[in-house]
Amino acid sequence: MREQFFEQVTSVLLVCCTIAGCNEPKKDAVKPQASAVAAPSAVELPKAAELAPAGCKATGSKAIQIGTILGDVYGFAEDATHLYYTTWQVYGGRGELGKIRKDGQGSQGLAPLKLEPRGLAVDKDTVFYTAGIRLMGVPKDGGTATTIEPQFSSQSVAVDDAGIYGVPGDYGPYDRVAKIGKKGGAVTELASTKRPASSIGPNGYTSMALDQSGVYVADAGNGRVLRFPLAGGKPQPIATGVKKPFDLAIDESNVYFSLAAGELMKVSKAGGRATKLASGLVEKARIAADTAAVYTTRVAKNEGAKLTKVLPTDGTQTEVASIPESHLVSAIALDHDCVYWVERADATKGLVYALAR
After folding, report:
1. Residue 166 has pLDDT above 50, yes or no
2. Residue 199: its pLDDT value, please?
3. Is 351 exposed, middle or buried (0-12, 13-18, 19+ CB in 10 A)?
4. Is-contact 281 264, C-beta < 8 A?
5. Is the dihedral of CA 284, 334, 257, 217 positive or negative?
6. Secondary element (H or E) of residue 288
7. In DSSP terms, which residues pair with 268 in a beta bridge?
């Protein structure tokens, strides 16, 4: 009986203590003193998207998709860490200037476009682009777009330390090479001539490239490639008798250009006889080149097309990526590590790929 009594008392005391919170510390209890030696805190690593932009991460022989772009891509350029583009959505009547990280870790819109864009070029700080007939500029890190020149009707542009250069493409009745300072000012025409009439395009100064030796222009209307002095003056024809040169790229010694009918050509910057490096290109093929290789798109034997690497020395060709039959390569760019291109998947979007060289 005595043991049973003590068990009942103990049970009652436990219940009361639970209700009263006997095990909880008092609010005015003295807090423990901090240790003289602080415990090491865990280092919080940044997320992948917060890491500083890096170069191309593609490896091996398989292309990787690094981005998706809404609309048709008209302008395409690169720097050490990003690809820059202008797009236009025909059905929406709007476009975008934006950039994609080469490491595939995201993209950023830089400016909305209300006028159809064409040319695009970048320097260390600024993206220059045409919207309608306007020449615009926006900081590469984002900011307010400014009008550099309200009438600079060029569908292809290039930039150097001295300024921005442009040619009209197939726009308007005249062919010209125009130059303006990066901050604006007077437009200087290095050359201007009336375009020859033709029922078969392309007809104008369709593309251009630029270095310290001059401005190189594909003159589709007259079947030649020209070099204009940077300061202006009479151009030098460096290739003649070529049918409808379309896209154009340069390296240290040579000019490479595609013919609208489907051939890849090469000529020395000093001028001379143009030689054929490849045939069977898709119609109005885009190209990108450096001293190591020229990249372009050739028609596949069965269906679709092949992104193809062509050696400038002897024309040796290597197919590096397959392009689906329903896709069109609308832009190509290069750096030391990778080749990048945009596939127009349909009327609403383009897919951006990178492939290790």
Report:
1. yes
2. 79
3. middle
4. yes
5. positive
6. strand 288-289
7. 254
Mean pLDDT of 170-176: 82
d(CA 21, CA 167): 84
Amino acid making up residue 66 = I
Calculate the CA 87 to chain-centre distance: 11
Rounded-to-10 torsion of CA 324, 327, 331, 337: -20
Contacts of 176 (CB under 8 A, 6+ apart): 167, 168, 189, 190, 191, 192, 193, 205
Q: What is the DSSP letter of 314?
A: T
pLDDT (0 to 100) of residue 42: 42
Question: Which residues pair with residue 210 across a beta bridge?
Answer: 215
- Edge-to-edge strands of the sheet including 174-180? 156-159, 164-167, 174-180, 188-194
Mean pLDDT to the nearest integer, 79-86: 98
pLDDT in tens, 262-295: 999 999 999 999 999 999 999 999 999 999 999 9
Q: Quick check: 56 and 338 in contact, CB under 8 A?
A: yes
User: Across all residues in the chain, what is the average pLDDT?
Assistant: 88
Q: Which residues pair with 131 in a beta bridge?
A: 117, 134
Rounded to whole angstroms, the Cα distance separating 70 from 349 reads 4
Of 225 and 26, the structure prediction assigns the larger pLDDT to: 225
The DSSP result for 71-124, as a single string, is: SEEEEEEE-SSEEEEEEEETTTTEEEEEEEETTSS-EEEEEEESS-EEEEEE-S
Whether the model clears a pTM of 0.70, i.e. scores above it, the answer is yes
Q: Say if residue 133 is exposed, middle or buried (CB neighbours under 10 Å; 0-12, 13-18, 19+).
A: middle
Q: What number does CATH give the domain 55-356?
A: 2.120.10.30
